[in-house]
Write a structure and sequence with these properties.
Elements (H helix, E strand, L loop, with lengths): L1 H11 L18 E6 L2 E5 L4 E10 L8 E9 L2 E7 L16 E5 L3 E4 L2 E5 L11 E6 L3 E6 L2 E2 L4 E2 L6 E7 L3 E5 L22
Antiparallel strand pairs: 1-3, 2-3, 3-13, 3-14, 4-9, 4-14, 5-6, 5-13, 6-7, 7-8, 9-10, 10-11, 10-12
Length: about 200
């Protein structure tokens, strides 16, 4: 049981039961093979997605300001953003309902089947580009190779996770730490909740 596992962690980490898991015990943030479409392939230790469909990361965005990146390894049909666990990861593209808010490969940002914003036509991510995403529980913002695209989007509610989908030979790599670009002021990598409740 989860409760038993928590007790074991608390008992064996020797920190006097302060309720925090030491960092060495913290799982790695990566793509979650338990939350992916049936035709998705995840390789490179949970960092690369190919095939067809979507996948959530294994950590929710609990903290106030998170940042993560995706590298476009091979272009095609793809999308990145945030989604709730109710999202249908077999239905590409995402952004068709209230459960996802995504940047699509054509530069449009979709939520609930509405275009919320759009990247400038001369700033569409190409092969080799790094797309950074910040999320502060209100607004999602996009960065292309470290540059703020001033393309905010909002509307999604509830507990969200990073999400990525691919189709048509697209391959994307996620970067949840060791970023290519310094996160914007106040934003940091996704942290697992360290508090044990």
């Amino acid at each position: 049981s989860a409760a038993g596992c928590r007790c074991c962690l608390r008992g064996c980490c020797g920190d006097g039961g302060s309720g925090h898991i030491p960092l060495k015990e913290m799982p790695t943030v990566q793509l979650d093979t338990h939350h992916m479409g049936t035709d998705v392939v995840i390789v490179k230790s949970g960092r690369r997605i190919c095939g067809t469909g979507g996948c959530l990361a294994n950590a929710p965005l609990h903290q106030n300001k998170s940042y993560f990146e995706f590298k476009i390894q091979s272009t095609g049909v793809w999308g990145i953003g945030v989604a709730t666990q109710k999202v249908n990861l077999n239905q590409v593209p995402l952004g068709r309902d209230t459960n996802s808010l995504v940047l699509r490969h054509d530069g449009s940002v979709y939520h609930n089947n509405e275009e919320k914003n759009r990247l400038p036509a001369n700033s569409l991510p190409q092969e080799g580009d790094i797309v950074g995403i910040t999320y502060d529980h209100v607004e999602l913002n996009l960065y292309l190779n470290g540059k703020n695209m001033h393309c905010p989007a909002s509307g999604i509610r509830g507990t969200v996770y990073p999400v990525v989908y691919v189709d048509d030979s697209a391959i994307l790599d996620c970067q949840f730490s060791d970023f290519y670009h310094t996160p914007p002021q106040g934003f940091e990598k996704i942290l697992f909740e360290q508090q044990i409740f």
